[in-house]
Amino acid sequence: MTITNTMLDALAEYTTISVDTMWPEGALAIKPEKYFENATSNQFHVWFMLNKDPSLMPEAIETAKKFGYSPEKREDFVQRVINYASAILGRNMLKIIKGRCLSQTNVVYAYDTQKTIECAEGYIKAYEDLGVSRDNVMIKLPATYQALKAAEVLKGKNIKCLGTMVHSLPQAIASAEVGCAAISTYVDELDANLDPSLLKEYEDLEDNYGWALSRDVHYYYRAYGIKTRNITAAMIGLDSTVGLAGVDEMTIPLPCMQKLASTPAPSNFQRRMPAVVSVEDAPPKESYMLDQVKFEKAISDNKIATARISDAMETFVKYDGLTRQMINDVLGA
Length: 333
What we know:
Layout (H helix, E strand, L loop, with lengths): L6 H6 L3 E4 L4 H5 L10 E2 L2 H10 L3 H11 L7 H21 L6 E4 L8 H17 L7 E6 L2 H11 L5 E6 L2 H9 L4 E4 L4 H5 L14 H15 L5 E4 L5 H5 L6 E4 L1 H8 L30 H9 L2 H29 L2
Parallel strand pairs: 1-8, 2-3, 3-4, 4-5, 5-6, 6-7, 7-8
């Protein structure tokens, strides 16, 4: 039986829908071309697609050689292969989406401003080498103090940035202060995004830390007229996703997208997040980027945020390491 109005379509009436994958066929199995706004990537997605698409590795290696990089400079060459693999994936996704492709800097450099800048510029060069304008790319960088300082520099080079791994309101506020075009709060636990069987369900959404944080960010941004887009991510649970209807944008993984696309929407479906929020209903206005100590203390005092940030970094470092090993294995001794 065909569902005429799905939960995904109902959400799309209030929230921009983007897809959390670099697999075009996977996205197209759910919705046709140009349904989704943006497509996001990270170290897991690159590793996943290198395993799924046997043509990606040789294409990335040959592209790196074509643009003058030598396997003899192994460490640099491996990074260039990662850059080109990411750009190839992004270029392919741009054919089926309406907006931008997002690539994530190496979180190993989360606390190094200059290295984060260099990493971001490496991705942009790879995209531009493939004929993709930087206007069609957004760089994801972790919302640490040092990486957000990099975002300030990158904005001056017409490189749009998204503050990711946002697990606290201070990170969301600081990201807006440096001019990030967007942020991503993580809603459900990251391990459940990699293995949906690990999803923890909540009877009361208020008990879901990521959902409550995403709501608080929505209220804060709307109340104070902040233009940075609140793009919720790491969404696996149906209830937590539907419970954020009305946020600026959602980047939804394929398992959750499939559930939404196969679930009928009630005829009286309404947004859950208000379009207009008063200052009285929002968290108090704060500022962080002029005071590194204040910013870092605000995060360290939040034990849930600290644990989630650490978990995300460990996960992305793991998959980056697996990807580098794959490339080195192909290149040989």
